[in-house]
Every structure is written in structure tokens, then in C-alpha cells.
Amino acid sequence: xxxxxxxxxxxxxxxxxxxxxxxxxxxxxxxxxxxxxxxxxxxxxxxxxxxxxxxxxxxxxxxxxxxxxxxxxxxxxxxxxxxxxxxxxxxxxxxxxxxxxxxxxxxxxxxxxxxxxxxxxxxxxxxxxxxxxxxxxxxxxxxxxxxxxxxxxxxxxxxxxxxxxxxxxxxxxxxxxxxxxxxxxxxxxxxxxxxxxxxxxxxxxxxxxxxxxxxxxxxxxxxxxxxxxxxxxxxxxxxxxxxxxxxxxxxxxxxxxxxxxxxxxxxxxxxxxxxxxxxxxxxxxxxxxxxxxxxxxxxxxxxxxxxxx
Length: 309
Hints:
By secondary structure, this protein is α/β, with parallel strands linked by helices. It has a domain at about 1-10 and about 35-50 and about 110-300: UDP-N-acetylmuramoyl-L-alanine:D-glutamate ligase, CATH 3.40.1190.20. It has helices spanning about 30-40, 55-65, 110-115, 135-150, 170-180, 190-195, 200-210, 250-265, 270-290, and strands spanning about 1-10, 15-20, 25-30, 45-50, 50-55, 75-80, 85-90, 95-100, 120-125, 155, 185-190, 215-220, 225-230, 230-235. A hairpin with a 5-residue loop joins strand 2 (about 15-20) and strand 3 (about 25-30). The protein is globular. Keywords: ATP-binding, Kinase, Nucleotide-binding, Transferase. InterPro entries: Carboh/pur_kinase_PfkB_CS (IPR002173), PfkB_Carbo_kinase (IPR050306), PfkB_dom (IPR011611), Ribokinase-like (IPR029056). This is Carbohydrate kinase.
């Protein structure tokens, strides 16, 4: 096993974002790509295992990742087209997504293409649509299980997209299987409300810990985030900012969280103080992203009092 890194498995998509004039602009996106770029901008060694189309939109995704310092040495050059997401913004900046996923590159994983995820130690992060859509989702899950067995720290963000993840019962079964492989699980309160409509957020976080996760976190939008740990419950308020839109905010939170947990090391047995610090950094990172159009996470030097260690 080679050097330590943060490896991200999952999709890289083109977001078609509707502007005030009704015109659409194309931007690189997709939760895993956003997390990888966020980590690289925070000075972390970020490797993205994605299936990138060889067509022009796929090349644009590749160029964007490389320009931001993301390691694509094991990304797959795929013959299938890139996935598209059409993004509509509400008056308060919240985003709604419609995906075009049939036959696109991101879901066609083969086991050999995912094998490089296991050749580094450190953190392995996955989730979003790549963990749900066939035929590749089974292989993504197998890779997370193998990483756990090899002693890697496994991170999961289900990033639920209703309408693409099956029925609620099917999605919940998939999530709970993946949670059993993970040490860190982060989800939005909206994800949790859709998966468990009759449960409180805190109860779901504890349920996931009972399935094997060490640290479970729910992001709460402008209310910040809450975490369940072995020592109890941690809460972190969000800074008050002027929101342009929320595109990529949850992914920026994940990047900030994983960046700090990676720096602290010794995972998954992190000290409570370190977890609290990671949550604080994560909400700061997400808040800055909300002040910018699109998924545009900050560099470490743009965060108050933060420099590359």
C-alpha cells in the first residue's frame, strides 16, 4: 500500500444552471467531484476515481479537476457520454436538480477500475448517485467494504436524490448497508427526512452509529450541523452569511470535515476536541461556498485564521 491520501469515488457531472434570464450555463459539478476539488483547494492530497467521458463535456470535467490540483491518475477515460444535471434556483438560493443519467459514464464501474482505491492508506470517501445506480453501485459498495477490512478510514455521504435511488425502502436498505462499512457518515437533514420520515435526526444518527459508524453528522442548512459521537452529541452553529445559492455547500462541508480529520490523523479514534474543530472548519467552508455562485469552495487561505499546516 502506497502513501496516504484522501481518495474519492463517484461521479463528475455537468451542471446546467439556469440564470435569471432563463439561459443555462454549464459548470463542472457532481458531489464527489465537488468534494475532491474542495479538498485540493484546502491543500489536501485528493485523488478522484471517476469515469470521465472522452467527449468534450468529459474533457471539460477532467480539465477542471486537474486545474484545481485533483489527482486523476486513476480516473477512467470512458466511451459513454457525461451525465447532465439541470439546476433550478429558488428565490432563497436553494437548488433543485433534474438528472439525465441513462447510459452515461458514471455508473459503468468494473471492479478492476476501482482497485486503485485500495492502494493508498488514509481516507476513502464515496456516496451520492454512484452508490445507488446500477450496474456500478454494487462494485462501489464492495470497494468500501474492502477498504474497511484493510483498515482505511471510510467516509460516506448518501446525498439522496429522490426519483433516482429507488423506493424509500430500497434506498434506506442501501444506505444502511453502506453505513455498516463506514466510520464517518455525513448526510443533510433533508436526506434524513426523506429516508426516515417518522424519525428525529438525532435518533437516526444514533441508529447509524449502532450499525457501525463512529462519527455520524447531519448538516442543518443555516442552523449548522449536529454530530453523534461515542462521547455524546456535538452541535456547531453556522456563520451568518448572505446566500447567493446553496449549490455545493454540503460538498464543501464534507471537504472541510475530511480535511481536518485527515490532518488530525489517528482515525477513526479522533479526540472529541478534534471532531469539534473539524465541524467548525466544515461549517465555515460551507458558509463561504454559499456566498458564491455555483459549487465554488474556498481555498484554505480564504478561511479566517486558516493557513496550510
